[in-house]
Write a structure and sequence with these properties.
The complex is a heterodimer of chains A (369) and B (283).
Chain A lengths: L1 H20 L2 H17 L3 H4 L12 H24 L8 H15 L11 H23 L4 H21 L32 H22 L2 H11 L1 H6 L4 H27 L9 H15 L3 H17 L4 E2 L2 E2 L4 H15 L26
Chain B lengths: L16 H5 L6 E12 L2 E12 L3 E5 L6 H8 L7 E6 L2 E2 L5 H6 L2 E3 L12 H9 L7 H5 L3 H21 L14 H13 L5 E5 L7 H16 L3 E5 L3 H7 L2 E6 L2 E6 L1 H6 L1 H8 L8
Parallel strand pairs in B: 3-8, 3-9, 6-7, 7-8
Antiparallel strand pairs in B: 1-2, 1-4, 4-5, 9-10
Helix pairs in contact in B: 4-6, 4-7, 6-7
The chains are: A mainly alpha (369), B alpha/beta (283).
Bound molecules: adenosine-5'-triphosphate and magnesium ion.
Magnesium ion binds next to helix 2 of chain B.
GO molecular function (chain B): ATP binding
Keywords (chain B): ATP-binding, Nucleotide-binding, Transport
InterPro entries (chain B): AAA+_ATPase (IPR003593), ABC_AA/LPS_Transport (IPR051120), ABC_transporter-like_ATP-bd (IPR003439), ABC_transporter-like_CS (IPR017871), BCA_ABC_TP_C (IPR032823), P-loop_NTPase (IPR027417)
């Protein structure tokens, strides 16, 4: 076991070494290749050569869309948990705010009857999610870690209960006929239709790239440094001049905005939003994905979010000694998590600035100095 | 006792000529005005009263548990005094946020090193340099000119400070991988990056061997020569005597002496406090 791990670690080390010391063009070429691969992935002509990778139980294009939404969510949550070290257990609540905002303003089943196009509701959805992040964060971010976890958990649950029981939010009946994103092919057929999931996936993929560029810009600035400093030692950060509350609120708001974006995209494809989309489990899955991938690391979040969402879908339709694996997906998932935490607590893609949140509680109390 | 301090002289122990040329102006920088601080029943600071003047190196000494660190914590806004107040550059700092006090020009290091362990040495200092930066989140998101300018300035400053404290070679190493002595130096560099008027050092030489202590002494003098006032907590009497212009002595939260190093060294209460005479007749 140890030798396998050593072998694995040394291999990973060599890769990272080559990555960081190799010429710049090589890095860009590799990134470009990965991007091209993922744009090509939903085409049958391409994925039929990929052996067992395409899902068997469900349409691969739809699966890829779901996976991409999870990746977007993981990138957003990584800002909050990974960078700023704020334990947010209700991140999916922001997804819900985004999806429901779109639903309420565009769907004919909404009481508002505004019937906006999707494109008009999108910026509003992002703005409202951001606002809800600020409203949730303002009273709670002054508290220390554990309280925040509980309050965020309560927030997501509150949204779910509101969606289930409020007349305005339509409960399980939900909102239907939510419009799709705009755009049509030269022959007049809409790009974003009902049958072909690929354009939606490509749209999310493109947005992921833009979001990652933005997050990376923040990460390499005063803002990112403030986040990490807060995570590592909040009091020391403040004593070095970091306005900690302000930057925690920004982490929360930017994370929320990305969650809202994901929710709006989901609503735009799904056509239908109801309280059944809102399970507590989703928050946990995304959090687990971020930690699994390597908290505090953008690449880690992408890998974690993608892998978790993909594997859960991959189990669909697979039988193992007569047992439908999909039924046991969360048990297997939990098992993987436990194993990971034992053998590789820093996540799949290890990070130079590994999260100290989980290993170090010293900063909870300031003593002596 | 403070009145006896008319004209601080150079500490008599051999020091570099730099220390001699510094004339201490009598402009108050920090006034600790009859501060009392209680933790439940414990009186950590009891009516402590002293003034720090611009340009000097003031030593704050006292046996374990005397309240030295607590005094730093009260100054930097971690604790609020139960009674009395603290003024910095003529302004009350009671009730101000920690980062605001830092922006006013007070910086500190910690007795138990508190760097950002997963960040590199360079990044640690950049955080300090960011204290005076104004780049907004939007500006950073789109890499606007202000972000680029401040980023360049901060980087330059951080490199200069790494060089100043003598750890340029460790620039890209995570702070937790630095040696103990390097971490202490990095803490000083990080504090200096906030452009302090007053630098508070909490036992910066703890755990150092004599050679390292001597180097640190030189560093503290160089910092003062750059126009930074220094407040130094230190256990090592020889080090304190060698570098400070004046000394304040605390015991059980009370100030028991204040004066020139030579005076303080002769003070029978200080000797008693350090040797434990009053409680211990055996001596
Ligand atoms: N947060 C706190 N809660 C309760 N008591 C405290 C707290 N901080 C300090 N004290 C007490 O205040 C007194 C002074 O402590 P302080 O750390 O300031 O001493 P010090 O002079 O720095 O000692 P040392 O030389 O050991 O660092 C001690 O009795 C300590 O137990
Ligand atoms: Mg102390």
């Amino acid at each position: 076991m140890t030798s396998v791990r050593e072998w694995f670690d040394s291999g990973r080390h060599a890769v990272s070494e080559r990555w960081h010391n190799g010429p710049r063009w090589m890095r860009w070429a590799l990134i470009a290749a990965v991007i091209v691969f993922f744009y090509a992935l939903p085409n049958r002509e391409f994925y039929q050569w990929l052996g067992p990778i395409p899902t068997t139980g469900s349409n691969f294009g739809h699966v890829l869309f779901t996976v991409s939404i999870y990746v977007l969510l993981a990138v957003g949550l990584n800002i909050v948990v990974g960078f700023a070290g704020l334990l947010d257990l209700g991140y999916f609540g922001f997804f819900a705010v985004g999806a429901y905002t779109v639903a309420v303003f565009t769907s004919p089943s909404s009481d508002l009857k505004t019937l906006w196009p999707w494109m008009l509701a999108l910026p509003l959805a992002i703005a409202l999610t951001m606002l809800s992040g600020v409203m949730l964060g303002t009273p709670t971010l002054r508290l220390r870690g554990d309280y925040l976890a509980i309050v965020t958990l309560g927030f997501a649950e509150m949204i779910r209960v509101a969606a289930t029981s409020s007349e305005f939010l339509k409960g399980q009946r939900g909102f239907n006929q939510i419009p799709h994103p705009p755009g049509s092919y030269p022959d007049g057929k809409p790009i974003f239709g009902v049958l072909d999931p690929r354009p939606y996936y490509w749209l999310v993929l493109t947005l992921i790239i833009l979001v990652v560029i933005g997050v990376q810009n923040l990460n390499r600035s005063r803002v990112g440094r403030a986040w990490i400093a807060i995570r590592e030692d909040e009091d020391a950060a403040q004593l070095m001049g970091v306005p900690t509350f302000k930057f925690k609120l920004w982490a929360f708001a930017s994370g929320a905005a990305i969650g809202g974006l994901a929710g709006a995209l989901f609503a735009g494809k799904q056509n239908f939003v109801s309280s059944q989309n809102l399970e507590l489990l989703n928050s946990i899955i995304i959090l687990a994905a971020v930690i699994l991938g390597g908290s505090g690391n953008i690449v880690g979040a992408i890998v974690g979010g993608g892998l978790v969402a993909y594997l859960i879908e991959r189990f669909r339709g697979i039988e193992f000694f007569g047992i439908e694996l999909y039924e046991y997906r969360f048990m297997l998932f939990g098992l993987v998590l436990v194993v990971m935490m034992i053998f590789r607590p820093q996540g799949l893609v290890a990070n130079r600035r590994r999260a100290a949140e989980f290993k170090d509680r010293r900063k909870e109390v300031i003593v002596g100095g | 006792m403070g009145e006896t301090v008319q004209k601080p002289t150079v500490p008599e122990q051999a020091g570099p000529p730099a220390a001699e040329s510094t004339a201490v102006t009598r402009e108050p920088l920090l006034e600790v005005d009859h501060v009392t601080l209680r933790f439940g029943g414990v009186v950590a600071l009891n009516d402590v009263n002293f003034t720090l003047y611009k340009g000097e190196i003031l030593g704050l000494i006292g046996p374990n548990g005397a309240g030295k660190t607590t005094c730093f914590n009260a100054m930097t806004g971690i604790y609020q005094p139960s009674e009395g107040e603290i003024r910095f550059r003529g302004e009350r700092i009671t009730g101000k946020k920690k980062h605001q006090i830092t922006k006013m020009g007070m910086a500190r290091t910690f007795q138990n090193i508190r760097l950002f362990p997963e960040m590199t040495a360079l990044e640690n200092i950049q955080v300090g340099a960011d204290a005076h930066h104004k780049t907004s989140v939007i500006s950073a998101l789109f890499r606007l000119p202000r972000h680029r300018r401040e980023e360049r300035d901060g980087l330059e400053k951080a490199e200069r400070l790494l060089d100043f404290v003598g750890i340029s070679g460790r620039m890209h190493d995570a702070a937790r991988n630095l040696s103990y002595g390097e971490q202490r130096r990095l803490e000083i560099a990080r504090a200096l990056a906030t452009d302090p008027v007053l630098l508070c050092l909490d036992e910066p030489a703890a755990g150092f061997n004599p050679a390292e202590k001597e180097e640190l002494l030189q560093l503290i003098r160089r910092i003062r020569d750059q126009g930074v006032t220094v407040l130094l907590i230190e256990h090592d009497m020889r080090l304190v005597m060698g570098v400070t212009d004046r000394i304040v002595v605390l015991e059980f939260g009370k100030k028991i002496a204040e004066g020139l190093p030579a005076e303080v060294r002769e003070d029978h209460r200080v000797i008693a406090a350090y040797l434990g005479v009053p409680d211990d007749d055996v001596a």
